[in-house]
Amino acid sequence: MSTTAVEVQGVSKRFRLYHEKYTSLKEKVIHAGRIPHEDLWALRDVSFEVPEGETIGILGRNGSGKSTLLKCVCGILQPTAGQVVVRGKLAGLLELGAGFQQELSGRENIYLNGSMLGFSKRDVDRMFDDIVEFAELGQFIDNQVKYYSSGMYVRLGFAVAVNVDPDILVIDEVLAVGDERFQRKCLDRVKQFQREGRTILFVSHAPDLVRSICDRAVVLSDGEMVGMGAPGEAIRLFRERLLEAGDALGASEAAAALGAATEEVAEEHAAEGLAYPDPQAAAGVPGAAAGSVSPLRLAPQESRPVRFTDVTCVLPAESERRYLLPGEPVTVRASFESVRPVAGAVFQLELRGDGGTGLFRTDSEILGVTCDLAPGPGTFEFQLEAVPLLDGAYDVNLGVQTARGLSDWREPACTFEVMNPGRSTGVVDVAVRAALVANGGLMVGTGGPVAS
Amino acid sequence: MAVEAPAESPDARSAGVTSVLDRAGSVATRPKITRVVSSETRVWARLREVWRSRELLVYLVRTEIKVKYKNSFLGLLWSMISPALTLAVYTLVFGVVLHNGMPDFVLYLFAGILLFNLFSTGIVTATGVVVNNAGLVKKVSFPREILALAAVGSAGVFFFFQACVMVIFMLFLHWAPAWPLLYLVVVGLVPTLVLACAFGILLAAVNVYMRDTFHLVTVLVGSAWFWACPIVYSYQTTVASRLAVHHLTWMYFVNPLTILVMTFQRVLYGVLTPPATYAPHPALHVLPHWPVSTYVWGDGIVLAAALVLFYVAMVVFGRLAGNFAEEL
């Protein structure tokens, strides 16, 4: 896979924001030459390459230029400067069912949509049954699309794009369609695409999804590429940017003074690691959305009194090893600094496995520990008495929350590794015994249970 | 971080799924087309894209026609009824009331209207087509010129239906076209199509930035341009001598549709000087006594001009198309 599928070369995109849009001749003449406008650089000199067969995630806050970048790759927008070189057939899924004609039947729309994605009738003919089956439309395929439910509509849109035969698939936040089962199906299909060596470029607000699907991720912030790397690193970068953005937004957001109650709800979501944002919110006003859409909602600057200074995973003292054995204890020790007295701080702990799978979450409140912090430095410990995990590297994420919001969040705060000397595989170390209980019509009585 | 291990879910292993691989062979090794998205516009590159999307063009034409008459009872028949009504009105006014004396005037009229309708329907539809398909233009990537071409294409389909009606008329009236000159139909048709595409592409792009364009085009093409062509009246009997006096004949033929319309009339109406229908039946000079080569040359010049305009239209469209998604 030495060749590149997509080359983004110094792409910049400027939008002219007019305070008033003049589209009629009269207005253009009247306002000729002095139409007030602002320049908005949605992308600034973004360059990266996507090798063939790789899956690249694009992370960024709302308004950071993700969708503009995808539109440039698809050729819907022309970059103001720079260029995008695309090798191979590209299918863009910027909006599901965007090319559908309301008056036509599902069948006719499949062909129309297929040809819009650049596929011949022969290609679509071959895949037709798979598309219908994938979209789960059955006999409705000959009904006019305007009578479809919204679920059927998007399912059909997705089915066409993934069942025809693109080399490069560009997905903008559309994987969260249909019910959970259909989402799984979509994800399975995406993974199958990867196995077949196709290239995927994909925008998501859900870092978990990026972590589990992508080979690498690009982080955009205010139109600039802040970094590109392994998903874990990219997500960390993304989260850092969110923290900074939280700072920057602080003043204005405090003025906006969201009710304390709604903030609490948002924080609860954050604490639960609710990574799938509401698509409605995502489509909202870009300026105001930065905080509300991110999986982590950080409180405004002045209400972040507690910050971590250092977090370490302390392995059992007696061992010389740099890793744990299954079932051994580990202590997560967090040093923090509090700038003022804080009543009822809540420390949160999150354990993530390979691929970002959430394994365990808890916080000091659940554990019944009240933390009223005095100003100055302090230390907090989560003592995990036994870690029933098997082979792997595990991330520990740590947060601290006050009544005013999430005060700090480290991801990953620290990591530890577990080596499993046994031969069982998997993630969780389940205590298990095995026994041959009956055989040949006879009870096997005396042997006793066999240890694993 | 590693990609999640391939999930061996039953869904992903169904028969339909494996066929993707069978068909594609190795995705990595099959030939690929390279496409460059940039602010530069090379007309040839754009034309190549259009050519690659020719199948989409066919679908869009088909869609346009299907959607247009989907919920109407008479459906496609309307595309024939409306020119038939126009014909009836003009025949009544000019043939019967004003008594211009042309035998089977309806066929003379039909020959001109047939060609003019192709042109006017094409460019009027094309002018509005990008704006009307804003949803598509903002979300789906395909060469946008296709939209304008599809508008002209659907006008071409209506042209075909109307031509069928004309054949029926001719059979009914026992009228024969000039058989040996039948190839002139193509000679007239090709420049008309190129011209319609050129204007269509140009106006479709301009209309995105100035929505007045659509209204302007509707008015100009529907009335002014129509009467500037010898469709309802005859060039030879009505305007030729008056223009010649003032040495303005050239001005009349600056209108590229004039020669094209006359080409159609030369073939389909066929007779140059039929006897008039009124009393002493004098010979009416309906069409000029030009050699056939005049028509061929005239149409050829129009074609050349249309091709130049087409190139210009592609350049302008290419410049403007980059910002369609923002402007709509």
The level of helicity of chain B is 55-70%
User: Could you give the distance between the termini of chain A?
Assistant: 43 Å
Tell me about the largest β-sheet of chain B: none
Describe the global form of chain B.
elongated
Helix share, percent of chain A: 25-40%
Per the CATH scheme, the topology name of the domain at 4-88 and 167-229 in chain A is Rossmann fold
Query: Strand fraction band of chain A?
Result: 25-35%
Radius of gyration of chain A: 26 Å
The averaged pLDDT of chain B comes out at 85
Helical segment tally of chain A? 11
Rough outline of chain A: globular
Secondary structure layout:
The complex is a heterodimer of chains A (452) and B (328).
Chain A: E1 4-18, H1 25-30, E2 37-51, E3 55-60, H2 66-74, E4 81-87, E5 90-93, H3 106-116, H4 121-135, H5 150-163, E6 168-172, H6 180-195, E7 199-203, H7 207-213, E8 216-221, E9 224-229, H8 231-256, H9 260-271, H10 279-282, H11 286-293, E10 306-314, E11 330-338, E12 342-352, E13 358-363, E14 371-373, E15 376-384, E16 392-402, E17 405-418, E18 433-434, E19 438-439, E20 442-443, E21 450-451
Parallel strand pairs in A: 3-7, 3-8, 5-6, 6-7
Antiparallel strand pairs in A: 1-2, 1-4, 8-9, 10-11, 11-15, 12-13, 12-14, 12-16, 16-17, 18-21, 19-20
Helix pairs in contact in A: 3-4, 3-5, 4-5
Chain B: H1 15-24, E1 34-38, H2 43-52, H3 54-68, H4 78-97, H5 105-132, H6 134-139, H7 145-172, H8 184-209, H9 212-228, H10 235-245, H11 249-254, H12 256-268, H13 292-321, H14 324-327
Helix pairs in contact in B: 3-7, 4-5, 5-7, 5-8, 5-9, 5-12, 7-8, 8-12, 8-13, 12-13
